[in-house]
């Protein structure tokens, strides 16, 4: 395919999921050629480094050789390519970009918590570090609960990022009952998760 977009991905990455969810919403997922990776916080995959010197996914290569990373850049490119409205113009743009930052911030804290748990031995693991990251996650969730009415039925880079962040909590932090004190967010997420873009991209270990 002459206009294909090569994308290094990992099936467990919430940032890759965000890219694929955007592609599905824009109707251009068939243009993405997914390249499996061995992305790991401690083991550098030099194949990814050809696309992204940080060796992190997602990283994309366009048909003309242009390299794009990270998910924020790739998603905005896809929206421009698909002539979509995930990144609106005008005042609403700043709202959805802030929502994207909130979702990405939650994901950053969740991933740092996971890496602390799986990459460090018991004697080097920091309970204070984990508590600090979980506090960020809880604060982000509270903000989402307080502002979820503003999402409505709007499909944007903000709402998709937040949905991917909540999905990652369900995937990797199944015992963390974030829904218990955030009923409005839970209802919104249940409805949002029915969209094919999210239903068909749920992360897997396989």
CATH topology of the largest domain: Glutathione S-transferase Yfyf (Class Pi), Chain A, domain 2
Helix/strand class = alpha+beta
Q: Span between N and C termini? A: 27 Å
| Tally of helical runs | 8
Sketch the major β-sheet.
Answer: 4 strands, mixed
Compile the SSE list and pairings:
Layout: E1 5-9, H1 14-26, E2 32-36, H2 46-49, E3 59-61, E4 67-68, H3 71-81, H4 91-119, H5 127-151, H6 157-172, H7 183-192, H8 196-199
Parallel strand pairs: 1-2
Antiparallel strand pairs: 1-3, 3-4
Helix pairs in contact: 1-3, 1-6, 4-5, 4-6, 5-7
Question: How would you portray this structure in words?
Answer:
With 206 residues, the protein is α+β, with helices and mostly antiparallel strands. It has two domains: 5-81, Glutaredoxin; 91-199, Glutathione S-transferase Yfyf (Class Pi), Chain A, domain 2, CATH 1.20.1050. Helix content is 54%, strand content 7%. It has helices spanning 14-26, 46-49, 71-81, 91-119, 127-151, 157-172, 183-192, 196-199; strands at residues 5-9, 32-36, 59-61, 67-68. Strands 2-1-3-4 form a four-stranded mixed beta sheet. Helix 1 packs across helix 6 (157-172), helix 4 packs antiparallel against helix 5 and helix 5 crosses helix 7 (183-192). The longest helix is centred in the middle third of the chain and has 29 residues, at 91-119. The protein is globular. It starts with a strand and ends in a 7-residue tail after the last helix. The mean pLDDT is 92.
